[in-house]
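Example record for the data management plan.
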Amino acid sequence: MTFLTKLETRQKSIKSILCIGLDPSKEKIPKSILSKQNPLFEFNKAIIDATYSCACAYKPQIAYYAAIRAENDLEMTIEYIHEKYPDIPVILDAKRSDIGSTAEMYAREAFERYNADAVTVNPFLGFDSIKPFIEWKEKGVFILCKTSNASSHEIQDVLINGKPLYVTLAERAIREWNMNGNICFVVGATYPSQMSDIRRIAPDTCFLVPGVGTQGGSIKEIMTNGVRRDGSGLIISSSRSIIHASEKDDFAERAKDAAFNYFTEIQQYRRS
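Corresponding structural encoding:
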């Protein structure tokens, strides 16, 4: 089963397009969890068990594990999702990029070592930097197109032949690079008008949309500017505002409440 088939099957079965980011900060994890042997995994496990009913995907950010030598916790987390909730895809947020054999190693890291269903990549080095990822036909490849951070305009909005770079990138990715039909885009919730531009270029493509919650992106504007004709085509992702809704021992319960609130708001705009 391809990533996109798995994703859309999950979205339809639970009527949700909410993705939950697993970006745990040790400073915000309760002491009762930190005392355990694999605290990040134990924290993630509790979050997953509390929120799975409204999660169409989970998205761990690799830096939160690698920086503190907790890659084993990341491997355990992904394995746990695959074993207990096999219908929920995992998107590894790694933003990898390089050329030649190095890019091939990054692809193997994402898809063999971590067994992710999809990965985020940075296309700045050009097609040969993402080709090794695209060649994994069953996997999803999320290309950074228009990111949610405040200074993204410094590069991504630069005009090339009268077009912003993010437009040129989207056009090239869809028309020239997507030979296996597994390219998707990362499009930040904080730039709804740019999201509308990209949707016109890629009417059938799936967008991973970070930037709601802590960064202030509007779900209403996402749904207005990014949704596909069939009412789908989006993965709305929130991380810290869900998983760290509480820093106390009730963290999993509060995460469940926060996730359900996002789910409910998204559903309201999907119906309208």
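Summary line stored alongside the record: The mean pLDDT is 95.
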